[in-house]
Known about the structure:
72% of the residues lie in helices and 3% in strands. It has one domain. It is mainly alpha-helical. Strand 1 and strand 2 form a beta hairpin. The chain has a two-stranded antiparallel sheet. It is globular. The longest helix is centred in the N-terminal third of the chain and has 31 residues. It contains eleven helices and two strands. It is a multi-pass membrane protein. It is found in: Cell membrane.
Amino acid sequence: xxxxxxxxxxxxxxxxxxxxxxxxxxxxxxxxxxxxxxxxxxxxxxxxxxxxxxxxxxxxxxxxxxxxxxxxxxxxxxxxxxxxxxxxxxxxxxxxxxxxxxxxxxxxxxxxxxxxxxxxxxxxxxxxxxxxxxxxxxxxxxxxxxxxxxxxxxxxxxxxxxxxxxxxxxxxxxxxxxxxxxxxxxxxxxxxxxxxxxxxxxxxxxxxxxxxxxxxxxxxxxxxxxxxxxxxxxxxxxxxxxxxxxxxxxxxxxxxxxxxxxxxxxxxxxxxxxxxxxxxxxxxxxxxxxxxxxxxxx
Length: 298
């Protein structure tokens, strides 16, 4: 029983990591109707910058704030300078831009920070004695911190979309930008804001995720996390904040249980197995568990 509890705690921790990045994907999708395939590498770049600041003597939390701010600026800048010009001509071109950013940002990380693995300090207590007991399992301070941040972040983003004029504008632009513009919505600012918020959430996710990653901070740190986060967003529904959280936690727990109880499907096959399950679910419900169905007039 203690072993099962440990695996569940580990799965929920990994799932919280996936949920954070999935939340960034949902925010940009709800704000612009676009999937940002460069989200993981954008988060990785801001995390490298945060690590660099800590090497200069900057407090960890200041480096975290810098990562969030940089993520916002980069996200908004990417939308304004790269995404918007091509999206006006061809929606498919946005995918090419995102894939170009994916490889470009990774190459930039290697050029600026090198290929050696770095150690990113955690903003939360993460010593061997910094844990709370849950039954027979241990929940360490950095994992607990990720859980708390996830809950707070979900609450804030939910309030943004449901209780503010800006959130209403973002939903309107994602649903129909032409009609929103005719209604007086400042679509340009709304689109930039959506991408900026997504970049900020990614910047926060990166600095929280990296201390928990087995390989710490390297050029491949965010790749597997992004794949799982994308699956979580699709599983829960690309326009559902709650779906991103549920999807991330489900995938995290599923991975932990598969690795623990089906060794043949663990290791290299672990992620493939989970993704196969997600594909099967999407075949039954293409919009995800909590995604809304769009009706089109013909």
